[in-house]
Amino acid sequence: MQTRVYQAGSVVYFAGDKSDRVYILKEGKAQSIFLSEETGYEAREAINVGEFFGVKSLLGDYPQEDTVQCLSDCVVIIITYEEFENLVAKNKSIIIKMLRVFSNQLRRLNKKVNKLVEKAEDEEETNQLEGLYNIGEFYFKNQKYKNALYAYKRYFQYADENSAFYHTVENKIKACKEKLNITDDSDIAPPLDIINENNSSNNDINNEDYNKALELYDNGDYINSIKLFNALLKNENETITENSIFYMGKCYYNIDKYDNASSILLSAIKKYPKSQNVKEAILFLGKACEKTGDKEKAKAYYKKAASMPPNDNISKEAEKNISKL
């Protein structure tokens, strides 16, 4: 059993981490950030002094479902599996408290599953697939291969081998990668057509601004890119806001504003812990720390990025950076 001090704003663990430890908040204020099973949106719950957290990951041997962030300076007790077993054996009241928590979570999960089933029955899958295919074809014909690739990839998320256009899309993905001269497509940003496929009623979205911001970023014009991404943070579409804040952090890194980059990327991770951008954001946090001379923290971020699936170019860059420290 050990005690560790975390500064305000620090993260004890991220959603997706695996751990063989249980945590108890001894002093301070902390919160659990997770996706609500009922609403599908981000939710936050206070962790009170004396409460356990991280228990399900230990007992179930699966990744953490939440991100735990310190709201003030905190003192956290860290307990191994063996120590936890001994503690529970001597304190039956702990078991009762945990069973109550798990029971409530199971009820919420059951509601979420029922809603998803009802939603799936109402969706017209064929029309969605055809729509994604047509978007990909439009971009491909106009030689916008990044956007086409993203649309085709989304098609594959919902399709199977019996779906219309399946093999055509398979060949188009290969063609896009050849045109872009890439093998890894994990960091392809979504065009607005894809972001809005379920948000067609939102008239506040400016396709031109979003795509222009991406174009400026790709061309290295980070100052003007920041201006556009910052304006898009006020957009009602959550996906646009999510992508924009992560891109802003990378922009600030590329103009050597490392403190700004770190602050924005940490805020983005806290707000969107399940985002596909988190892994790259952690890599950039490591790079920012390395630039400011904090090699120990940089190494920790690199190790985190390298350990996150899939084993892609981000993982390779993180491992390479570790070897150079």
TrEMBL record:
Pfam families: cNMP_binding (PF00027), TPR_6 (PF13174), TPR_8 (PF13181)
A GO term from the CC aspect: cytosol
TPR repeats: 129-162, 242-275, 279-312
Alphabetically ordered keywords of this record: Coiled coil, TPR repeat
InterPro entries the record matches: cNMP-bd_dom, cNMP-bd_dom_sf, Env_Response_Regulators, RmlC-like_jellyroll, TPR-like_helical_dom_sf, TPR_rpt
CDD domains named in the record: CAP_ED
Domain called Cyclic nucleotide-binding: residue spans: 1-105
Coiled-coil segments on the chain, per record: 99-126
UniProt GO molecular function: DNA-binding transcription factor activity
Name of the protein described by the UniProt record: Cyclic nucleotide-binding domain-containing protein
Naturally occurring in which organism (per UniProt): Brachyspira aalborgi
